[in-house]
Predict the structure.
Amino acid sequence: MTVSLGPGAPVLAFDVGGTDLKSGLVTADGDIVGVQRTPTPVQPEHTEKAVLETITRLGAELRQQHPEIDPQAVGLIAPGVVDDDNGIGLFAENLNWQDVPFRDLTEKAFGLPASFTHDVRAAGEAEYRLGPASQYRNALVVTIGTGIAGAIFIDGKPYAGEGYAGELGHSVIAPGGEPCACGGRGCLEAIASAAAITRRYNRITSVPVPGAREVLERARSGDTDAEAVWITALDALGLGLSHATALLAPQVIVLGGGLAQAGDALFTPVRERLYSHLTFHRRPELMQASIGQDAGLVGAAMRARAILETP
Amino acid sequence: MTVSLGPGAPVLAFDVGGTDLKSGLVTADGDIVGVQRTPTPVQPEHTEKAVLETITRLGAELRQQHPEIDPQAVGLIAPGVVDDDNGIGLFAENLNWQDVPFRDLTEKAFGLPASFTHDVRAAGEAEYRLGPASQYRNALVVTIGTGIAGAIFIDGKPYAGEGYAGELGHSVIAPGGEPCACGGRGCLEAIASAAAITRRYNRITSVPVPGAREVLERARSGDTDAEAVWITALDALGLGLSHATALLAPQVIVLGGGLAQAGDALFTPVRERLYSHLTFHRRPELMQASIGQDAGLVGAAMRARAILETP
């Protein structure tokens, strides 16, 4: 890891995903050590209990492995609908929990101050504050992976909308179109997420692929089915980002997540499509996320440090 | 006028529109007196000079008519792209000006502190603060008249995006569709503004109508052309508002402007369409604007009072 949070309190950081749970310890210098992935202990119900047990165990192990580091707070992040202000997991479809006071439960489990925030907003904050987008006051950080979600920064501060903002993955691009995991139809996520690109291509090909990367490769080597799926995704992303631009006028849009690793193959055509929908609007810069896959842990650690700094 | 701003400094208020210029004087009790409409003195270029002359004259007349009121500040609002923070009219297509420091010019002309802000944001602030939406922290006020534009309130404060935010009228609903005054295609404004509804209907009917009100009347009395135009507008509004909801999660959306006067005929079907696009999203309340056509003057006066309260 080359990213550093800079000097501050040592903290524990946990990033609970739908599949993996990442853990790490941030030093007083701001480096992350002991980064580890373990499977998320998903349960048919009340996954929160198993998650809290797992992070408590992982935290104890990290402290044993690094006795020289004395963490002062815990940063925990998770997907779903999260009330950042009150540290409550309101809802997470894949993780089977509802209205869980994670912040308070984590404080009890560790005997330390804790923060509980939304994974995309925390990762977005890491990208926003530690990357080149930090020079702008108004920014949108969009993660395109299995799903699509955004983190909004207004006048330099995250805007969560009581946990409901930033859901541009569930903004309808094609009314009545592709069914989405959320129960809607034609959502951006159902057309343009890495998972959707893979799924849509595998539905029409006779030789399935494991991921969006391979769909792009086939599109490049002349597979017209792959090309059609890829172009529909680019069109949807350009249109979705143009809606966000008209409404919010971000100075910069940062794209991260698995799909952003396609680099120019994604950014050049999406930028072109986005700008084609704009006239007098301010054109946002379109930037690739710079921290990448550990942005969640970094963001969790930033939030944990922030609570120590707030009286 | 039944609306009152409540007690505060007496101020002059001017609302420059594409056709009319409205002026008025706000008393220390918060009532608006001497409200008057004059034609906006649109010039082939530099309309700002004629506007400044006109408001200086109207201001002098108001003071003569009401010698008992001693205005302490001037609130001026106008359409286009406006940098509220610095009081600059960046651009206004119909009014032929560019980068005009209206705030400073108004201060000089009147010898009083002045504010210069965007008309839709100022009117939106009046609707937000003085209407039932004031109970919410996060709100969107959308004006649907000749054009469509929105005023965004984040944690109780207006968000202007350096003058570029809130342009959901120029968010593309039908890519490649109806040409828009902004130079784009398929913008919400080109489909669903009162002017667009009238224009689209008059293009296909043999008996033209003067406004959207008559299109709605004909739709109700079985004119299938009028019905088709009206339904396309409702669909576009529902979809556009759903995009704003997914991204911003406003607790309330207030609809104002001429089209909102259709009342239930607009609100019931738009609400239904908006909610049909939402799944786990928070459903915003959809409210009719309560101040109406003088919201601009009220908002201009509120901004003028605000500068007296800020050191």
Remarks:
- Chain B has two domains: 11-119+293-309, 132-289.
- Residues 224-248 of chain B form the longest helix (25 residues).
